[in-house]
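ugh finaly. both done.
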Amino acid sequence: MTRIHSKLDSLASRLVASNGSREEDEDDDDAIFAELEAEIENDADAAVRDRGLEQLRLEMQRAKEMRENAHGRYMEITNEKEAIRISANEPHCVIHFYHSNFRRCEIMDKHLAKLAPKYYATRFIRVFVENMPWLVEKLAIKVLPCLMCFIDGVSKDRLIGFEELGNNDAFETAVLELRLANSGSVLQKARNAYESGVTYNVSSSSNTRKLRRGEQTDQDDDEFDL
């Protein structure tokens, strides 16, 4: 049954991360579903067959609904009301508040784009701060890049700048991944890269040094004014 669970996870990830056309996606999904269904039906344990088939159907439906709602993709939201709706309605949501003038925001984008298809249960979006004046004021966002993490519509954590990521532009995606996992923003399974011994000190608050936009540095974050 463990092997079946693993395949179900793979199915859901492929459903949301697929880059082909819609018709090709559906053909591929049907093939994966048929393979899993045959494997479950051939199991000698009747209880496993019943539970597995039901779980397969539920997972298939859930993954399709998530893909239709842009899970598995890192995308930009330009409408403030839509950003508020997503943060309020998604069970897990990570919002990157960015500005196009700040290089570190581009670096954060690259890492989040890698994590979005891996953690399809979490909705990853980016928002341009100048399009979100009410949210920026409400959440007291002053330093960029800033990640706001919502769980069941409630703001649970924020990651400001790179200080908690080693304060280095060359940090690995795994460091950000662990940081988000420890705050509950992404749900990791027991089998992951951190079994190899990677650890990181996690705090839900930052004391990132603020800079004025005109200063030049490779290792500091930026304060902005709307």
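ok and the 2nd:
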Amino acid sequence: MQFDTGTIDDGVISGSPVLPAVLSPKSVERSFQEPGWQEQSVGQEPRRTRRNLMEQDGQHCSFTADNDSEDSECDEEWVDFDNEVAEDDDDLYEEWVDDKLEDKSRGKSKLEHDSDYDTDLEELQGSDVEEQDSADEVEVVDKQGRKKMKKKVKMRRWRPEEMKVVEFRIGMIFLSVQELRTAIQEYIVQKRVGVHYVKNDLQRVRCKCEDGCPWFLYAAPDSRRSTYVVKKYVGKHTCERNWVLKQFTAKYLATKYLEKFRADDKMSLKNFALLIQQDYNMSASRSKLERARRSALKQINGDELAQYNLLWDFAAEIRRSNPGSTMFVNAKDGLFENCYMSLDACKRGFLSGCRPVIGIDGCHIKNRFGGVMLAAVGVDPNDCIFPVAIAIVEVEDTNTWKWFLNTLKEDLGIDNTRAWTIISDRQKGLINDVNALWPDAQHRFCVRHLYQNFAKQWRGDIFKNKLWQIARETREVDWQQFMDDMKEMDEDAFAYLDAVDPRQWCKAFFEELPKCDLLLNNICEVFNKYILDERALPVVTSLKKIKDQIMIRFFSKRKEARDMCGTICPKIRKKLDKNIDFATNYEAEPAAEHLFKVTGLRGEYEVNIKKMECSCRAWQLTGIPCRHACACLRLERIKPESVVHKCYSIEAYKSAYGHVIMPCSDPKVWPKMYGPAMRPPKFDKQVGRPSKKRRRSPLEEDNGTRMSRHGIIGHCSVCNSTGHNKRKCPELAALVAAQEQAAAEAEAADQAANAAAASEEVEAADAADQAANAANEASAAEGAEAADATDEATCNIDSQPIQIVHDDDEPEPHLPPTKMPVKRKGSSSKKKVLVSLGNRASASIVEFVMSYDISSSSVMDVLQEQALATQQSQTPLPSPLPSSQFIASCRENLPPPRSTTATLGLKRKKPVSKKKENLLPNL
């Protein structure tokens, strides 16, 4: 191949090894008239667009080709470099290049800003955009209605990641109208604006803001792309933000916080409201929060009503994923009746690694339709719970327990029940079912439930401690002694306990084969607590989560087994260490080979190490060496772990949890059974909110701040007897009648006393009236005598002249009779008139400043009036009133209190004007 030396940039240095020829671009001088090039100003580099690159690809071949036929321009196998521009690169660029970086690159130069795929946003926001034939071209119309040059708008697809900050633009593509509506709703909530739909259908979506706000959006389907495209958009807001939005619904909140509720399904409404306030700066009502939480949990857990029809498919999936498992569903008349589930790994592990002990109990389901979940739980080699089977029934009664026990027996393949032990509550129906279906099995009662019934009549720590002492005793002799002590305390309590079969609740009568001395049914109580949250879910979700929880438990137990040290399980080792510590108080004496005598605080015991027996029977019941056996092992230098029963070994533990529980597939791919339609069982909706907490017994410990009064013996305040209070006292009626009779008698005595006092008062009043009448008659007689004397004096005065004496004691000349002068205002002269008239006066001296006529008639009238007034004033006074009446009359005649204003002197009292009739005549 030949190269043009004038245009080759490569150089050859002599002495260097020969390298393969490299094709280098040729410097070609191009004229401005060639296509794809435009005239540029000095200092500007022409930008190579995609169209120019496509045109240059064909021209380069002609420029660089030579006469050799091997290097023709049609050779497609030869590639210059890997980063070749292809037709699909434009789509990859739009998909992977960030908008922010793209915006930065637009501002580098003027030519790049005016590229074919850039649009001036500010110009488009204030103009109307009309749809053109091309999906990338629009025509911009200014405010005056004049059309400008066509610009190509970049058609960009909406991505769900943009929901964090929603921004619209012209040419934005949405795959469906639902996606567009979701974006608009998110925009309204984020901006807190009052945007509403003017048109909202499958053909167009037109939105506008409140009146006076220019914000506007119009989107319609595009036939060229089969999508929705934003064709008109004005993004400016002049309105104020709102605190209440119609689009801020409970459904919207449930969708936004779905993952939050998936992570924390017990989120309180208070915390939910705080999250909404932090994210949106808005508040929602409590009812809206409740509806949102309910909707979110429904999406997570499923519909409670629809899941009853999924039970057929879920049972088939359990049998498919875990072969050998048992699960079936029963329906009656289209209503759910019961279902049973037992995994194959649980059955195999229980039969191979656990002791023949089964605890059965029921717990309530706390979903909408209720029900009872029955459970059968075993004990693993580490004394922990081992779930065996569960069932869901409508109610807990004799029939359901009979069905469950029979199904469990058949599922485990148990024919001989002699070696098995059943632990349950003391229920009458359950006792009959166990005796009928498991006739040879030992049926134990939970001592705690036994004590709850016992404590209803015999309360107190003395009875409680004695009952537990009887239950824990392992020897019959000691058991009989404690029973005698109870008889001495209370014969009725002794009779109550003696009526219960001791094989059901006393260790002294337990079988030695199970190697279990449990007195409580705590294994079922622990399992009920273990599935507490799952019991509140819909039926299929509840069973699926319980199955997943057991699957995780098996895996964690297998992992723990790999880390265990020694030969026995950890909990058994703790019990053994405790017995070894107690052995310090016991002394062992050898009697024969493997036979010892142990002396301790409570007596002497016989221990046989070879047979693993002790006279206390604790070793035979549990399989763990007791404290007496540990004292013998200490003497013989034997490791206690070597004589522990093999049911507590780590090998048995691995055998119990060695089977794997396979997970279930997605519900979408479950096998379809097409079972008959099934509805939930009938239920009665209770009034009020359903309770979520268990109703605790009064005997259970409560860590509250107030001490309970349960068990306190109260006394009646009426009869001072126990067993009732004052309201229910039988002697209360007689007591009330006696009190009423005493009150009536007291009232009659009061009335008689009041009547006697009233009669005495009447008699005293009559005597006082008589005395007053006599006094009045005497005073009247005296008054008549005084009147006669006054008349005589008056006659004497009329017959004698009146002597007028001046101040200087000089006689005045006789003046003619004149009229009585009238006192004038402003007169400086002072006159004194003294008139002294007595009923016994013999004479009257009157001193005047001036003389008056004796024969004046006015003077005679005045004297007669004065005499009459004197006679009236000398009438006798009435008799004095009693003290009580006098005080009462004084209180009635008291003047009203003076007002505050008058007391303070703020208002002066108006003076009383003197009338003429109140004045004495001037004599």
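summary for the 2nd one i guess: DSSP finds 28 helices and 20 strands in the chain.
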